[in-house]
Amino acid sequence: MTTSSDKTVTAVAHTNIALIKYWGKQNPELIIPYTGSLSLTLDQFYTQTSVTFNANLDKDQITIDGQPVTGKSGQRVHNFLSIVRRESGIDLNAQVKSTNHVPTAAGLASSASAFAALAAAASKAAGMNLSLTDLSRLARRGSGSACRSIFGGFVEWQKGSDDTNSYAIPVETTHLNDICIVALTIEKHQKPISSREGMAFSVTTSPYYPTWVKVVEADLENIKAAIQDDDFTRFGTISELNAMRMHALTLSADPDFLYFNGDTLTAMNEVKRLRHSGIECYYTIDAGPNIKVICQQANVQTITDTFSNLFGPTKVTVAKPGPGVKYL
Ligand code: PMV
Q1: CA-to-CA distance for 293 and 291, rounded, in angstroms?
Q2: Does the pLDDT of residue 3 top 70, yes or no?
Q3: Is the Cβ atom of 181 under 6 angstroms away from ligand 1?
Q4: Is residue 79 packed enough to be buried (19+ CB in 10 Å), middle (13-18) or exposed (0-12)?
Q5: Could you say which of 79, 195, 196, 263 has the lowest number of CB atoms within 10 Å?
Q6: Does residue 21 line the site of ligand 1, with CB under 6 A?
Q7: What angle do CA 247, 253, 259 make, to 5 degrees?
Q8: CA of 227 to the centre of ligand 1 (A)
Q9: CA 194–ligand 1 middle distance (angstroms)
């Protein structure tokens, strides 16, 4: 039993938005996906987490925004800490203090920034000195999308086939650097079907799942080419298409389910109307009703004005590319 380490380590990780979605695990235990995915790390939404392993604790103590975390979420953090204990050889309970920094009412706190920050802080507090690749592998065990938040800017999660080769890498580019994400917070409340449940259900019951696996490979290659060609139109078109293909898996599940609500459809139509009027923008949607509008700096003002009029200014947040994980 290791009784060393009383060191508190604090890490900050930003959330990311997938443009090519991860939706389905071929290994649920190790979180190995069926497909690769590609995301943009954002500057606006991040999690700061401090971890201390301490011999005086009789169990893990976890707080988020000052509130104790229990139940399913607490168990998930505890399970993740046990992976860190196993891999580092430390045998102590941990104190975890996490704070989510999201603009008022954004409702966009995500498991991606949470598990990326936790992986960074916990591994270092346990005395491990992981490379960014190994940190990405570790973060993946907490939440798949977290493996991408280790890096800033555009990031690809290479699906791999086992624990050693499934991790994210940064997409080296200076292109599309005026990209903006206008996040619309249509609904603040937690989704009734988590992404974890939703994707598992899509894998087992949608007859289109095998087709999804095929088309994502092509979408991923095409979006990487669009980034290298600095082609925003192609980039946005592929992003929107890929998001709709993901949601088609929920509509074709048995029984079917849907993450959109009426306001989601209103916002989707508005994005299309803007686009047809010459304001170039596209949408992407994750496992919930909120929409992210993908655009370039030149059109941000028109887009934020349009959606502020429609939903109210507090529901609209502008994000830009953000950095990878950092220690404080
Ligand atoms: O990492 P999870 O289990 O929260 O799943 C993320 C799923 C999506 O956000 C819908 C897509 C993605 O690639 O981030």
Answers
A1: 6
A2: no
A3: no
A4: exposed
A5: 79
A6: yes
A7: 40
A8: 21
A9: 10
